[in-house]
Write a structure and sequence with these properties.
Two copies of one chain form a homodimer. With 361 residues, chain A is of the alpha/beta class. The first copy, chain A, is built from 14 helices and twelve strands. Chain A binds a DNA duplex (16 and 16 nucleotides) through helix 2 and helix 4.
Chain lengths: 361, 361
Amino acid sequence: MAIRKRAATAKKSKAKLDIRTVATAAGVSVATVSRVMNKVPTVDAQLSKKVWEAVQRLGYVPNTQARALVSGRSRLLGVIISDITNPFFPELIQGFEDKAIDVGYEALIGSTNYDLQRMEQCVQRMLERQVEGVAVMTFGIEQPILERLSSEGIPMVFIDVAPRKKNISIIHVNYDQGIREAVQHLAALGHRRIGYITGPHLLHSANARLDAFLSAAERVGIRVPESCIFHGDHTSEGGSRGVEHLLSIKQPPTAIMCSNDVSALGAMHAISRAGLSIPDDISLIGFDDIKLTEYVLPPLTTIRMSGRDIAASAVYALLNPGTAPKQVETSLIVRQTTGVPPKAALAKTSSSRSSSPKRHR
Amino acid sequence: MAIRKRAATAKKSKAKLDIRTVATAAGVSVATVSRVMNKVPTVDAQLSKKVWEAVQRLGYVPNTQARALVSGRSRLLGVIISDITNPFFPELIQGFEDKAIDVGYEALIGSTNYDLQRMEQCVQRMLERQVEGVAVMTFGIEQPILERLSSEGIPMVFIDVAPRKKNISIIHVNYDQGIREAVQHLAALGHRRIGYITGPHLLHSANARLDAFLSAAERVGIRVPESCIFHGDHTSEGGSRGVEHLLSIKQPPTAIMCSNDVSALGAMHAISRAGLSIPDDISLIGFDDIKLTEYVLPPLTTIRMSGRDIAASAVYALLNPGTAPKQVETSLIVRQTTGVPPKAALAKTSSSRSSSPKRHR
DNA sequence: GTGAAAGCGCTAACAA
DNA sequence: TTGTTAGCGCTTTCAC
């Protein structure tokens, strides 16, 4: 009696549908099937059709792991971000994902939460999956990452600043453009005293924005005293505190610019708590143009820095390690938080704002 | 003269650091290295230490592809969402990602944008990467997905509703709880006329929320006429149109509940455009508790449905195909868009609101 | 243009 | 307990 070899009598025959099965079904060799699947042009059209038919009929799907193993190409791109709760990142991640898929890759996402250990784990995961490149979108240099990945020769891309290595590229964001537009917009409206709420000291992007603001202000002849610059931390609370400070100085600004939108949102709350109206009493401009800004009331005037643009540039940079990535532009989006300064503020008297600001409701 | 075989004189020796290298370096077999890496308990502590040292010293990182290929386990979990721009999803994705990593998996994200072709591509990608499970978080049943994945016997999890198959589980969201709390909250405040802006007709979650609202209203003895229900589409615009409609009826509601937060945000804009104040003239409650709601002014009272909870439940369900996933709870988060109805509205007269609503600014 | 065969790096029998 | 070895499913020389 022959041993019955039928794997399963049930409908779930799970007949190990691999490239060989297809080859047999199509009456060709596995090599041919492989060539067809990879669209190698030198395959005879007849055979090719037979193979596709077999693939279709059997519902064959190639195994990416095996492919990656033998070819040495994982078709995986890593992207590392810092803070999940930062509303700037979803768009960036989505853009990265989309772009990666466009070029036949998959995205591996890691978030560090500013935690070095989580960062290490991220890097480990990326290494294990054999990523072909890693975009470090944390807006800060993270040394531990560099050592491991860089030494493997894996292409990397950073924002704004990174050590000089030949497998590392940098996406430069043109902060000046958008910020200059914003300052000019404010100046055109008649503002002469502009406050600025900046981000964390050691965040390059925050410093770059502050510098851009300072030089833009200078260009339009606006003096920015120390007291008009508040060092926040890119959180909503930081924005609130910034407003409290700026409203407390001798000559409060008639307009405030924030280093990011989340700060600006906090600033909005603080301004409204102070009984002042936006933009009637004070104008406000954010930075990032996160989704939130459109929904908020009044919709926030802000400087757009497209997460999708950055993501696209990053994917491009990873796949073309030699070439310099495209610079990312920023631009002013005028919504409804900017307007002419109140008349009182325009008077030359030093105590320009009435001691008890008129409550708005 | 012997052929010089040294691969590279440069520092980038790239000496093919695989499990064999480690085995040799540690003076053991590859099997032992494999066992150590996989924490098989029966390995001698001495050898284990030697192996770890070698791993450390060489900087060895196992190749996931090879692992997956031979073991048949990809350690990949797919998650499919619909609309990127829906602010509810980032939290869900982040939660899924985190949870997956917690249990030693990686997340593969796909977004369909309501496009069937993109959906197909998603499924194809997941199949090719040999995902061990797929969470379909689109809040709708998508037939095409089912056919392919389900027939492969891949565990799947849906929200609210799905075909009965043994590899498919369903996460039930307890809409009633949060919605009942909201209605009771409104009733306690004194509201007797509550408007409701619902979502797309064929979205199960929207219908379930509407039903929950209707029965909750009935429980507290509030009658909800047809005219108080506006069929929106879960967009901001839908919310605006809903408000316009609800304010136009003979007896406008003093409170409005929305099927999701984005609608509620649109509603806020429309209400403010109408010259009415929240919550003085009208109360508003959203659904989802997306990040946005805290930042908005005034902060939105809403019903929390945790994307993280759903994600956690989904990951659990995928890894335990037999067992029923945990139900996800919802609950009211009271912020500042709900208050007592205006006195005028409390009068028994049918034309309760003055014909020209007092403008707020 | 097509096929046979040699692995990619690893795990899992099986043997020792 | 440890080592040897046969593949996992695929791509890719290398002959034909």
